[in-house]
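Form 7-S
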Amino acid sequence: QLQASGGGLAQPGGSLRLSCAASGLTLSRYFMSWVRLAPGRPPESVSTIYSKNSNTVYADSVKGRFTISRDNAKNMMYLEMNSLKSDDTAVYYCTAGPPDIAAMNYWGQGTQVTVSS
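Output:
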């Protein structure tokens, strides 16, 4: 299973760090992604980190503001979110599997991120 944590309330321009802990999965074997879901908007894969070489991919909406990383020794994944905007408000899910949202094999429990003054 995957368990996301670290969400909360942040002011515009602020920062949050999300964590994803895995049990029963070896994260280093999978593409890992953060997907967010906000009311009235389609699911968005904000970032993916590759399994073999740890290359990273970001959605244009978060490029330059968010950083994805993984710690294989701890079986953890992270999302550092800076310069937060109100549009970043969503439930964030960590996932494992192919980077296509429709093909992701494992989804963790989401964590709510709210950006508001």
